[in-house]
Known about the structure:
The protein is mostly helical. The chain has one domain. The chain contains four helices and no strands. Helix 1 crosses helix 3 (42-75) and helix 2 packs across helix 3. The longest helix is centred in the middle third of the chain and has 34 residues, at 42-75. The chain is elongated and about 60 Å long.
Amino acid sequence: MRGILHTLALLAVGALFTAGLASGQVLPKDELKKLITSASTRADHERIAKHYEAKAEQLEVESKEHLEEAAEYRGNPPGHEQKHPLSGRTAAHCELFARKFADAAKEARRLAADHMEMAKTAK
């Protein structure tokens, strides 16, 4: 249970930290949904693209942080990694999250590129 709480605390702190990196560009979920369903102008699609670029930056920071944590655990393993390989205090756990955040960042960049293409043909 402590491992889960530790992980959740790290994720919360990371989310608060990264939210400040691009706070002017990341849109609230409800605003993004409305904009996606009504986007018709170049400015609309560019705004959506900027949102996804900022989101990708946040996710890449998260991925990097998890890779750094994994390196720390690899250098000083807690000893229970064989019994609990994906508990919150293992390198494997951190590497899993690093991959997930990196994959999500790639998807966000793809969405940003798609919306930049849409912006080129919009009015």
